[in-house]
Amino acid sequence: MKKTLLITVLLFFCFAGFAQKNTSLSYIEKFKDNAISIMNETGIPASIILGVAMHESGCGNSNIAQKLNNQFGVKGGGGAVFYKHNKKVHSAYKKYDSVLDSFDDFARIITQRQQFSYLLETLTTQDYEKWVKGIQHGGYAGSKKWGAQVLAIIRKYQLNTLDEQAEDKPQITENQK
Question: Is 85 helix (H, G, I), strand (E, B) or coil?
């Protein structure tokens, strides 16, 4: 009986450690196609989309990611409410109907807000380091370490290889405008 209990406990901790260690990989696998699709629609590198989402949401494990479907730490939206340990929490973060809505809103923020939209005009999908610096410089996050942390995630998981799946968009000439 004691051996069975000991083996069960050991297996639990082994699997718990395994699952925890692979959270990043499962997050990438789950959302990489969405990130590539958004890249091909908008020009924002997939590595940026996934790197920022992984950093801001703790690979989907943060409270705002789980309770509000907010993968990017976007604030606003009228004071969302969720429960944590049976206590009502009023949040400054935006609530989304789905995780994919959060991804789409991040793309909208980067493409439509003036402090970020210039990145689309000056950088390619291969310039992920400059994208991170530009997003940080635009005021996306307050932490001075934010850019280095996002770059570390991109490099650790080689997310920049996803950027190679960008579709070539035809250049619009002056005559076609």
Answer: coil
Q: Which of 159, 61, 42 is nearest to 105 (CA)?
A: 42
CA atoms within 13 A on the CB side of 8: 5
Give the list of residues 6+ apart from residue 9 with CB closer than 8 angstroms, or none: none
Assess contact for 113 and 122: CB atoms under 8 A. Answer: no
Dihedral (Cα; 101, 105, 108, 112), 10-degree rounding: 150
- Inside any domain, residue 114: yes
* pLDDT (tens digit per residue) in 104-130: 999 999 999 999 989 999 999 999 999
Per-position DSSP letters for 125-172, written without gaps between them: TT-HHHHHHHHHHTTS-S-TTHHHHHHHHHHHTTGGGGGGGPPPPPPP
pTM value is: 0.79
In a domain, 18, yes or no: no
The number of folded domains in the chain is: 1
The CATH number assigned to the domain holding 60 equals 1.10.530.10
